[in-house]
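Supplementary material to the annual report.
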Amino acid sequence: MTRRAVADREDVLGVLMLAPSLAYVILLVGVPFFLAILLSFSNATAGSLRFEWAGFGNYGAILGDPIFQRALRNSVVVTVGSQALVVVLATAAAQVFRATFRGKRFARFILLLPWAVPVSLAAIAWTWIFDSTFSVINWTLKAAGLLHGWLYWLGDPALALVAIIIVQAWRILPFATVIVLAGLASIPQEIVEAAIVDGAGFWRRLFQVELPLLLPVVTVAVLFGVVYTATDLGVVYILTGGGPANTTHVLPTLAFQRGILGADLGQGAAIAVFLLPFLIVVAVAMLRLARRAEVGAR
Amino acid sequence: MRDGIAALTELPVARFYLNTLVFVGCSVLAQLCTCTTAAYAFARLRFPGRDRVFAAVLALLTVPTIVLLVPRFLMIDALGWVDTYAGLLSTELVSVWGIVLLRQFFLGLPRDLEDAARLDGAGEWTIFWRVALPLSRPALATFAVLVFAEQWRSFLWPLVIMRSPERQVVEVGLAQLHDVYHGNWPFEMAVAAAAALPMLVLYAVTQKWVIQGIQWTGVSWTGEAKARRTDA
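Predicted assembly:
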């Protein structure tokens, strides 16, 4: 009887069911997070793992480093640029997929493909698309008579950033489109019909009725997109490796290069810590949204 | 084409697949246990401090892996688990994202059945095990598919923690060949297709669940948890 009673008490069971995961999260997210901050104030290297206090030495060094400044700027440009692109494309795609048309199942399969394509295949496909001699984009533009010179996508810092933004937008697009579609479906039909009765055309309906109602949903897509893009290392690493001449690094790739390949753990950690301001803003926004949703649901 | 086939037969591709399947399978099973129980506790059981703890867990959702990479490596290294499956797997047994996702699902489960069970004298554990879990089967399937895909794509951690080529997972193992054979397009395409195939098959079969899972992740945040299902 007593054993049963203990497992059946709501508060006891709640703590018991939560404890293993919570302990794990503290041990493998909380502790490493704390260690990372500690590392950023030390001059530990992969060779000598002594925690020697370096104060703000690492921070001073990276803040004065033009490569870091560039990487910080690139991180902002890539994150903002790709999210802007995604918002436009996802809204457009959701409008298309709301309609019924022939081959919709196939189109949907293609749209969501980025989710299913593993890093290795995407890497090869994209390096081919942006290749200096085989670039599909260049050959297409040439054939259409739109391009007279030649675009060295990954050889030119500005073009390389554009390429990175395109690939980042491609990665998050399936997620964003599905979310916007679900948001569209939850708009009360009466509102849309009322707008039609009042004589609103497609564009007015889109900009004055649907988009304002979609704002919370789009915000969620963007918040996830920011986390996904700002912390990503793979795309830049595979497309440009940070080159040419360290002009296309973002914070994660630079942290990886300095901290792991360059074995300067302290500096690598300090660079990665600069991601946190971005993410704190996102976390706060998410918590607010979640709270508002919960209040609304009750 | 002949190049491609030759390439695949020379490499321990089968071994890569086996490694990946073991790794992914274990992490899916582990996360099903850990995330389900934690999420249920957060969603359905009342205990002091619950909501504050959940807010803290939610905030951890944004901590980037790149920040955790080196400290985790040092911790695993201290245990002597570098280049072992234990080391590879030990960081992937719980996912914060999974807890948040499943909590959202449990919040939406109807309370009537639970109340009926309670009237029949069922305790809290019985309600979880006999009432809530059977109702959650589709949700758990969706979750399993999403975790499977995420783990299949994991790249950075296996790259850092595994040393022996024959213990590597398929994504990293094949990508490392990208460096060696760079520029040999037929070869690379064959290798990449081999890596992509299982994911594509999984995706083709479970498309509906995938879309459902994405919808929960996103829409649940805005209080539209019961949004009408779209046919897309």
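Chain A has a mean pLDDT of 83.
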